[in-house]
Design brief:
By secondary structure, this protein is of the alpha+beta class. Among the domains are: about 55 residues, Nuclear Transport Factor 2, Chain: A; about 60 residues, Nuclear Transport Factor 2, Chain: A (Roll). Helix content is about 35%, strand content about 35%. The chain contains five helices and eight strands, in the order H-H-H-E-E-E-E-H-E-E-E-E-H. Strands 1-2-3-4 form a four-stranded antiparallel sheet, covered by helices on one side. A four-stranded antiparallel sheet has the order 5-6-7-8, covered by helices on one side. A hairpin with a 6-residue loop joins strand 3 and strand 4. About 5% of the residues have low confidence.
Length: about 180
């Protein structure tokens, strides 16, 4: 009788084990329940203009290029250039009107930074992205692809790495020497 019990109990036990392993844990279930709340917090008013319309209006008012857009507490926060000055301003999502503007002194337009890099022999420029470190730039210089970080205030290159530097340190096919015992 015990072998017959084992015959039926083992598959049932395995099925229960698999079902329990796939069930969401309490923290996962709580996170899933909170997700709709988080989405509601960042919603725009129903009568808000599309972001593309806001950006076109901003450009028509002389703010170009736009370098950052973020929805913060129901208002669009935008970083852009107006002439040679970098400015930060808030735009009402319903009216599209600029509410406040703050000049960020010392910010250089990206076009000037790129022109300075090209004058130093970098090119072609392959990719540019603004992040918390500055302008991350991928370019070619002397036949090698390099990664640069340019200071958005001064255009000064703060970091320069050749992608092939790591490969040069460890030649292909190099094997580690066995340790002596």
């Amino acid at each position: 009788m015990s072998s017959r019990l084992l015959y039926y109990a083992l598959p049932i036990g395995l099925a229960l084990l698999i079902a329990c392993a796939q069930a969401p844990t309490k923290p996962e279930a709580e996170e899933a329940a909170e997700e709709p709340e988080a989405a509601e917090e960042v919603r725009l008013p129903k009568n808000a203009k599309p972001l593309s319309e806001i950006l076109n209006a901003v450009k028509a008012q002389g703010y170009d290029p736009v370098v950052e857009v973020e929805l913060e507490e129901g208002t669009w926060e935008i970083d852009a250039f107006k002439g040679e000055e970098r400015v930060e301003f808030q735009v009402d999502p319903v009216s599209g009107e600029i509410e406040t503007e703050e000049v960020k002194p010392g910010k250089k337009p990206l076009a000037e930074i790129v022109a300075a890099l090209e004058a130093q022999g970098y090119g072609p420029i392959l990719e540019i992205e603004l992040d918390e470190e500055g302008w991350e730039i991928e370019a070619v210089k002397g036949g090698e692809e390099v990664e640069l970080v340019a200071d958005p205030d001064t255009g000064e290159i703060r970091l320069e790495e050749a992608e092939e530097a790591e490969e040069a340190e460890e030649p292909e096919g190099a094997e580690e020497e066995p340790e002596e015992k």
